[in-house]
Amino acid sequence: MTKHRILVQLDSDEQASVFDAVVAVDSEVEHLLQYHSVRPEQVRDLVHGAMFTRGPKDLHNTAVFIGGSDVAKGEQLLAAAKQCFFGPMRVSLMLDANGANTTAAAAVLAAARHIDLAQSEALVLAATGPVGQRAVRLLARGGCKMRVASRSEDRAAAACDAIRSAVADAQLTPVATGDTEQTAVAVEGVDIVIAAGAAGIELLSAELREACSSLKVAVDLNAVPPLGIGGVEVTDKAVERDGAICFGAIGVGGTKMKIHKAAIKSLFDSNDKVLDADDIFAIGQSLEVSE
Fold this sequence. Notes:
Layout: E1 6-11, H1 18-26, E2 31-35, H2 40-51, E3 62-67, H3 71-82, E4 92-95, H4 100-112, E5 121-125, H5 130-141, E6 145-150, H6 153-164, E7 172-176, H7 180-187, E8 192-195, H8 206-211, E9 217-220, E10 237-241, E11 244-247, H9 249-266, E12 274-275, H10 277-290
Parallel strand pairs: 1-2, 1-3, 3-4, 4-12, 5-6, 5-8, 6-7, 8-9, 9-11
Antiparallel strand pairs: 10-11
Helix pairs in contact: 2-3, 4-5, 4-9, 4-10, 9-10
């Protein structure tokens, strides 16, 4: 008898994400079990419930997706879930709280289509946030020289320290972008800019973007006006503006969705996967090769 694919969705928010549920259904999940307001101390019983109802040979048909709007809480749930396993008794896990992993992967892949990361210097704006940190990490792992930006240089430096723990040879420089003058200095001479800030906050003006003659790729991940990079449209998908190839949030959204769906499907290939930023990016790279 063929076992149905079951995805257990653990969400730290008061309501489990409808977005993540729809993507799961579109990824050919046959049964979706959603749990909201999940705390780390509740994870063991939920994961054990998923593990102990099927024998080891059938556990690849069960997987756990960790979402929610709070990435830090999602990371805590992932850590708790990883502690639940022993021997062959385990199920595959995926973390994409607030879409941080799939969004960062899509942004970096968009840039990599047009420029050699290993020969480039990049500025990530709002790099201390969950998407920004992941974008920095993925770019750095690709050999890109990084400027890690925050309104506070101390916060940027702390983010650099955290990223170095994951990418030991990362070339990271913390920069402050608290005002226009600081931002002008931060963007000078870079090849790539990724804006990963909160919705409705402009991080780089159109004037500064246009004045940056070295800029080759600009990616804005904010879909709510005012956008994060002035003069970039939310629907831009490899649109040339003032000599730079530009992407808006919807422009990279198609890639993000492909990665999300492919990652969900891959959970059921085996029962021992743990999909975080680097693993999800690798899935995105495999999709690029296949297209």
